[in-house]
Each structure stands twice: as structure tokens, then as C-alpha cells.
Amino acid sequence: MRFVDEYRDAEKARALSARIASLCEPGRAYKFMEVCGGHTHTIYKHGLEDYLPETITLVHGPGCPVCVIPMGRVDDAIHIAEQPDVVMTSFGDMMRVPGGRGSFFDSMAQGAAIRMVYSPLDALKVARQNPDKRVVFMAIGFETTAPSTAMTVLRAAAEGLGNFSVFCNHVTIIPAIKAILDSPDLRLDGFIGPGHVSTVIGCRPYEFIARDYAKPLVVAGFEPLDILQSIYMLLVQLAEGRSEVENQYARVVPWAGNLTALKVINEVMELRPYFEWRGLGFISHSALRMREKYAAFDAEQIFEIPGGRVADPKACQCGEVLKGVLKPWECKVFGTACTPETPIGTCMVSSEGACAAYYNFGRFSRERVREATQ
Amino acid sequence: MCLGIPGEIVEILPDHADLAKVDVSGVRRAINIGLLENERLQPGDWILIHVGFALSKIDEEEARAALDFLEGIGQAYDDELAALRTSSIDRG
């Protein structure tokens, strides 16, 4: 039990750890996917795998919004940023994400005007203050972030701002989970459901996982005990032969989600027929675009978008990592050619990416530790 | 960017019903509360904040536990607070 002093609830963690171990059927291996990158971060920061029996494997899912942006969309955004009088605005996380032609940072070094913002509302302010510029917001994120973009567009429309637009790359979590469930590569026993996405979409959208795929899902909070508790709840369901959606994070996540947020997204955006995800390929109805009604704020209507598809670098195995097929350290370039300072793939860029989490906290898999000690 | 961070409402800004001044670990910034229009937020209430918007109302106990946790995770929370400091959505 290393790392036990890193947080206060070590006693509770140990108790949960014992209960988890007692629920595991002898000889059975369990694979649970934590969908959300925030959970991945907690798991490696706190070494939670050390609290689990060796028969439980945690598989990292696609829930890191920066990680799933394909290289072609980064190139498209850079193309927009290079147009006359454009100021591109972006969350800081996006700045080092490599496209086929480099990152936002590289593009800035070559003279493009790209500014980091905390909130889409800050991007709106840049537009107000620079009426002679065309200000574009690089919108990324799951349903957690989409309502903020949508609210900002509504505000821009109410103010009649003519120089603000959104390059919409919002993605939706359910089709990605479904793609993973339908993938032959991976057999999962259950899901640790995303916490903050669920504050918006609620718990009902996951019900098909329990009903059609007979797998349990527990929406989880972000603290170490939340995650251990959720694993315990998954094991109880499996032991009792149930597959249901349960909410471990009810103190924050309402079962029905945030109806205002859903309404706002639906007012401004609609589902795309398909969208490319890094590593997962094209997934139907898995992303949002601006509705025609808000075309005046849609960068894809205002600018010509090259729309090129760029294959990931050959050495990069982010796709397999995002699908949970490979552990980060199993990638050939992990920690050598690909580090947080000079990332090749997106999973190494964001602090929520599985590779960055592994790298920053120096955790290697139990398999490797075993190999090293044998 | 995916962090949800707790903040305490200090005041509802008089000229903007959808904006509140919020204290996040000592950083005071305007936060949009339009997504919680049905919650009738008041000073003293705690909210979970994501990219300048309040996503859900939380109780004080949850907020304190979440803050303890975030302060413990180090760099990612420091980065988030640094980004929040650059934000000034209330001043046009």
C-alpha cells in the first residue's frame, strides 16, 4: 500500500479495497472502463490500481475531449486562424495538440493570431473589443462544455455581434461508448460512468448499456473513494446478476441531468451525420454542428474549410489507447519519442489523457512491475 | 479544461441577472449562472463551475470535499485557477 498517505481517507479506502476483493469470484478476470479522462487522472495520481485485486483491470476510455480531436480538424482550425483579420481563441489544453501541420503554438510562432481563453464568454469579449477582427472560438468538449458554447452563441446573437463565430467540434459521449461496445477488440464487464458529462445529460442515456448489452454502469465522482466505491457497486451488480445504471455521484449529478443545458444545446446545435474521432474513426451521429438558424455564427459557413483527413503518425498508437486496447506504456513511442513536452499523440497532451497521466505520475502497469521483479 | 471546480456565490451582479461574482479558492470572478436559472441561486450558495458557467448547484459539504481534493491534485488545478484569473466576462 504505497501512496496511502496521499489522501486522508486511507482507512476507508482500505476497507473498500477489502470489500472489493471479497466480491471478486475466484478465477474470474474483470475489465472495467473508466470513460472519463478525469477519472483516469485520479486513478494514476492516487495509484488506485494498488487497491484492487490483480484480477481487476481498469481500461481507459475515450472521454478526453482534447485527445479525440482528429489531426485534420486541428489543420482546419489552423487554416481558419491564418485567414486575414482572424483571431482564433482556444482553451489552453488545445494549444499543443498536433495536427498534420503542427499545433496552435507552432502556428502562433509563424504569425497566426491565436489567443488562449478560459471561457467561450472570454472569446466573446475579445470579439466585442476588436470589432475590426473576425474572432473564432475553437469549441471542443463533450456535453459538459457544449452548453457553454451554445449559451455564448445565444449571447452573441442577442448582442448582434457580427464578428464572432464558433468552429464547432463538440462531441457526444453515448455514440463513442456504443462504438466501444460494438468493437470486437475489447470485452468489458462494466463502466465507470463520467461525472461531469452526466450533470448535463443525466443518467437515462446510459440505460441502453444495461438493457441491450447487459453491462452495469455506475456514474462516479472524481475523488479516489468515489472511484473505489463505484468499482464496488459494479461488482455488487455483477455478483447479484444485475446490469443497471446507478449513480454514485448523486450529490452532484441529478438523474435527469440539467434540462436548461440540454435545451440550450438543442436550440443552437444539431447532430452531425458523422464525425471522425481520433483512434475510433468515423462514428455516426457522434458530434454537434451549428444549426442553420445560427449560420452567421458558424465558422464552417463563414470560412472555407479544407476538411482534409490526416492519418495519425505511424508510430502513434493513441487510437488503441483511446479504445482501451493498449495500455499507454505498451505504445512504442511512450516516454521516448512521445512525452508531454513533445507529444506525438493527443493522449500525451492533455493532463486528462491516459498517456500523460501515466507519464506524469510514473505509474507502470502491474504486469510490468511483476516482470521487473521476477 | 474538463475540471469542474466549486465556487461560492458572493453576489448576483445587479446589471446582469445571469452573472454572479463567485469565489474560487480566493479568486473572485464573474461566472455565468444562466444554466441554473431554475435554482434561484443566492449569495452563499455553492456551484460547480466549468469554463465560466455554473453546471450544477452543490452543497457546502460537497464543495469543501471537492476543494480539498482539487487542491491535492496539484498542477491541473493550479492551471485551472491560473486560467480563471485571466477571465473577465463581466467587463465588456
How would you explain this protein's 3D organization?
The complex is a heterodimer of chains A (374) and B (92). Chain A has helices at residues 10-23, 37-45, 71-81, 104-109, 120-129, 146-159, 173-182, 195-201, 207-212, 224-239, 259-268, 299-302, 318-322, 354-361, 366-373; strands at residues 30-36, 56-63, 86-90, 114-116, 134-141, 164-170, 190-193, 217-219, 245-247, 269-271, 274-277, 281-284, 288-290. In chain A, the strands form 4 sheets. A 5-stranded parallel sheet of chain A has the order 2-1-7-8-9. A 4-stranded parallel sheet of chain A has the order 4-3-5-6, with helices on both faces. The model of chain A is unreliable at 1-7 (pLDDT under 50). Helices cover 37% and strands 17% of the residues of chain A. Chain A is an alpha/beta fold and 374 residues long. Chain B is α+β, with helices and mostly antiparallel strands. Chain B is built from 2 helices and 5 strands. Chain B has helices spanning 60-73, 75-85, and strands at residues 5-12, 19-24, 27-32, 46-50, 53-58. In chain B, strands 3-2-1-4-5 form a 5-stranded antiparallel sheet. Chain B is globular. The model of chain B has no long low-confidence stretch (mean pLDDT 89). Chains A and B meet through α2, α5, α6, α8 and α11 of A and β5, α1 and α2 of B.
